[in-house]
Design goal:
Order of helices and strands: EEHHHEHEHEEEEEEE
Number of strands: 11
Oligomer: single chain
CATH class: Alpha Beta
Helix content: 10-25%
Distance between the termini: 52 Å
Number of domains: 1
Mean pLDDT: 87
Radius of gyration: 16 Å
Largest sheet: 6 strands, mixed
Strand content: 15-25%
Bound molecules: zinc ion
Low-confidence stretches: 172-185
Strand order of the largest sheet: 3-4-6-5-10-11
């Protein structure tokens, strides 16, 4: 069986994990996939995407970007050391992205980020697995990485802005912004 035909879980395939909008990129991603990356993608598929799909009444979760090569990650302005490089993060669309984002709160995700446009219309949702060596810090609602840095679990991002503005999510899918741009609690 070819790698691209591999089923990661009942509803997701390696082909979807190698999704890219850039021409010819899928072949590059396939060459980049190691056994470790395939295992990571399988974990993400079974432990995040399948339960999420179930919570969302079996509505389709459409993959936008999952595994990325370093080159593709740079091309899409991904963060340095992005979990997409390891197959541990996925960006997806759903007919109701706010509900999908909310649903991720019930799963042990590494990070969940909802990307909004300037009109606060959801663009896509990012979900990742926590690294195996990450430690949960309840007080900070963050994961602590072995290097001592913290990864906030829930974030709202405004991609239309440069630099990107990430706001900690405080428990509502629709953040209300004050005139100063701060989050109204
Ligand atoms: Zn992402």
């Amino acid at each position: 069986m070819k790698l691209i035909d591999m089923k990661l879980s009942p509803h997701f395939t390696m082909k979807e994990a190698c999704t890219s909008k850039s021409k010819g990129a899928q072949a590059d991603i396939l060459l980049y996939v190691t056994a470790a990356i395939a295992i990571n993608a399988t974990r993400l598929s079974n432990e995040v995407l399948e339960p999420l799909r179930m919570v969302l009444d079996d509505t389709p979760v459409t993959i936008n970007s999952w595994i990325r090569t370093p080159k593709i990650n740079v091309a899409v302005s991904g963060s340095k050391g992005s979990q997409h490089l390891d197959g541990l993060a996925v960006d997806f669309y759903h007919p109701d992205m706010r509900t999908a984002y909310d649903a991720l709160a019930h799963l042990e995700v590494g990070q969940r980020i909802i990307y909004l446009d300037e009109k606060e219309k959801p663009l896509w949702v990012h979900a990742s697995m926590p690294g195996l060596d990450w430690e949960w810090w309840e007080g900070k609602k963050s994961w602590k990485k072995p290097d001592g840095s913290f990864v906030l679990q829930s974030l709202v991002c405004y991609p239309s802005e440069t630099p990107k503005r990430y706001i900690p999510f405080t428990g509502r899918a629709t953040p209300v912004l004050s005139a100063q741009g701060g989050l109204v609690q």
